[in-house]
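User: Okay, second chain of the day. Same drill as before: sequence in, structure tokens out.
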Amino acid sequence: MNRIDKTFKNLKAQDKKAFIPYIMAGDPSLEKTGEIVLMFEKCGADIVELGVPFTDPLADGPTIQRAAERALKNKATLKKVISLVKDLRQKTKIPLVLMTYYNPVFKYGEERFIADAKDAGVDGVIVPDLPPDEAGGFVKLSKKAGLAAIFLLAPTSTDERIKKVASASTGFIYYVSVTGITGAQLLLDGSIEKSIDSIRKITDKPVAVGFGVSTPDEAASVAGLADGVIVGSAIVKKASEGLNREFSDFVLRLREAIK
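Assistant: Same drill. Structure tokens below.
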């Protein structure tokens, strides 16, 4: 049982939901990213998702794309993000999840990537362009290392797809609330509840909802349906406006809403 599993187990025992903020590593710098992670923890985050910048982020909207571009200009790489996690492990035990695309992992080498990530203190990995159908080796290596391999489901996922993702995923299942890119508008029309009900008929693994959660009110609504709430674009946008009191206050409001 790694830190992600322990976190969801403890939250469930307290009838609480996970707050999972996302930030792009390297924007505005790797040093500042480390400070943001520690601020997230201080504000009550349960798990932190660290984006790894990539030149072709197909799942990301304009806000996160621009953050990735800034991070790449700052020379942020997968290797440097892993090194950042290793440094953070001297200061925090909060579960850390990397969200990266497969190209950097392939270039790094799957086996070496998983070994280095685990050694640094990474708890889980999300690779949105690596479907479970093509991830047999990745899943096997991750399980052996005790690293959570987190896969995605969407509003269009069939029962067959849910079974496949539920079987492959460890840590939690990432439910993409909209059929689009990050930052798209959230629709609280009952469709999320219906989809999560379908997932829960098949698996008891935790389900965290991301894509489109932008406000504390939306976070509160999603927390009533899922085991965790992922907030990305709204946090990245606030961070780009300044790492100040207003930014930390926004994170605190999200935390309070998810409680």
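The longest strand covers residues 18-24.

User: Thanks, on to the next one.
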